[in-house]
UniProtKB/TrEMBL annotation:
Superkingdom field: Bacteria
Record's protein name: Dicarboxylate/amino acid:cation symporter
Membrane-spanning intervals of the chain: 7-29, 41-62, 82-100, 163-182, 203-224, 236-260, 347-375
Annotated SUPFAM superfamilies: Proton glutamate symport protein (SSF118215)
Phylogenetic lineage: Bacteria, Pseudomonadati, Bacteroidota, Flavobacteriia, Flavobacteriales
One Pfam match: SDF
InterPro entries: Na-dicarboxylate_symporter, Na:dicarbo_symporter_sf
Localization of this protein: Cell membrane
Length: 441
């Protein structure tokens, strides 16, 4: 009997988790059972992915840079990556603004619904925490993100997943320095990182064996933790606009892949399904990064020198789905709370959402912190910020899951574009966890 492909196994796990979660919501002890006995397996899976994210970036990026014969090629890769990421983010924000202005979902929210949402969510710890975090970011200087990129302690940066840009900076610095000392002197260190890269990739294969069980646990917990169904229905129009925008972004990526890289868009999406499903389940680009790199390198055929730079950078600064959501959410909140927006305000949303996406954490809920910054940039009353977040808090988690799928798909699309433009595409070579098992006998 033929073994089911990984994406079908994960999809079955997701559907089973959703159905199981719904079933548990109708049992008095169901929620506690899922959170105590089921959710830990999903949490362990996410921790394992985060565990190997930084070692994978370190090993693969050093290997990619040290394999380069011409250092100017790396400069071209970096410049093209940043420019394309900025362009796709602007396109995402524009799509969001066009949709929300055309559909005006905020105008359909009644005062009673606003009051109920405010009473239910405005005092939530997650809401107040995000307001505090946004205030800290607002107080920082205009070049703070450049300061934050440079670590003062390499080991401290390597021990913290939220310092992804610092890890990338240190790794690039190390890789370039290895090139400059010459191949002969760098050979021992290069061999170490080559071996480390292979080991970490094998760890990805082993972790993915548990993916179907993990997504079952993660989705079951999401379902039993969902809020008031009546409030979710009240926000259905807003959610529909966000989802439509995210779908249009996937269509945009498919068109780019088909026209620019000449790669079959359907094949591209099919090969990215495992990474997309994990992005949906974890709501974290950083946690999904090891799987995204594995799919792009081994299944699509992007050389490591491209994927090892483009994808980690993308997980940190490229948040197309999140930026689109911010544009829609900002206008939705303004409409619902009767705050008039001018054309200049909407241009400000484009610029602020773009800048806010650079350097923001690739973790669940970062989008709401960025949203506060966007709202403040257009002069939204500070005393209504908590109310604004409360309006969308009920549906933020499921939408966060969906926009993370778009973020990951966008990262892969840009990696393919950069690889195509630099002639760095190769024939895919899929590896499995038991490829070398015969050597142990």
């Amino acid at each position: 009997m033929r073994k089911l492909e990984l994406h079908w196994q994960i999809l079955i796990g997701m559907l089973a988790g959703i159905l199981f979660g719904f079933g548990m919501t109708y049992i008095s002890w169901g929620r506690d059972f899922v959170q105590d006995w089921i959710n830990p397996f999903g949490t362990i899976f996410v921790k394992l992915l985060k565990l190997i994210a930084i070692p994978l970036i370190l090993a693969s990026l050093v290997k990619g840079i040290s394999d380069l014969k011409d250092i100017s090629k790396f400069r071209n890769i970096g410049l093209r990556t940043i420019v394309i990421y900025i362009c796709t983010t602007v396109i995402a924000i524009t799509i969001g603004l066009v949709l929300v202005n055309a559909t005006t979902p905020g105008s359909g929210i009644s005062n009673a619904t606003i009051t109920k949402l405010t009473e239910t969510y405005s005092k939530e710890k997650d809401v107040t925490d995000k307001l505090d975090e946004a205030a800290k970011q607002q107080d920082s200087g205009p070049l703070q993100f450049l300061e934050d990129m440079v670590p003062d302690n390499a080991f401290a940066a390597l021990s913290d997943n939220s310092l992804m840009l610092q890890v990338i900076f240190f790794t690039i610095f190390l890789g370039i320095s290895m090139l400059l000392i010459g191949e002969k002197k760098a050979k021992p260190l290069k061999k170490f990182f080559d071996a480390l890269n292979e080991v970490v990739l094998k760890m990805v294969d082993l972790i993915m064996l548990t993916a179907p069980i993990a997504v079952f646990a993660l989705l079951a917990n999401v379902v039993v933790s969902s809020g008031d169904p009546d409030l979710l229905l009240a926000l259905l129009k807003y959610s529909g606009v966000v989802i439509l925008g995210l779908v249009l972004m996937i269509v945009f990526y498919s068109l780019v892949v088909g026209t620019f890289t000449r790669y079959n868009p359907l094949t591209f999406l099919r090969k990215m399904v495992p990474a997309q499903l994990l992005a949906f389940s974890t709501s974290s680009s950083a946690a999904t990064l090891p799987v995204t790199m594995e799919r792009v390198e081994e299944h699509i055929g992007v050389e490591k020198e491209i994927s090892s730079f483009v994808l980690p950078v993308g997980a940190t600064i490229n948040m197309d789905g999140t930026s689109l959501y911010q544009a829609i959410a900002a206008v939705f909140i303004a409409e619902a709370l009767k705050f008039d927006l001018t054309f200049a305000d909407q241009l400000t949303i484009v610029l602020t959402a773009l800048l806010a996406s650079i350097g923001s954490a690739a973790v669940p809920g970062a989008g709401m912190v960025m949203l506060v910054i966007v709202l403040e940039s257009i002069g939204f009353p500070p005393d209504k910020l908590a109310i604004g977040l409360a309006l969308i808090f009920a549906v933020d988690r499921p939408l966060d899951m969906l926009r993370t799928v778009v973020n990951v798909t966008g990262d892969a699309t840009v990696a393919m574009m950069v690889a195509k433009s630099t002639g760095s595409t190769i024939k895919p070579k899929v590896k499995d966890w038991d490829d070398n098992i015969d050597e142990l006998k």
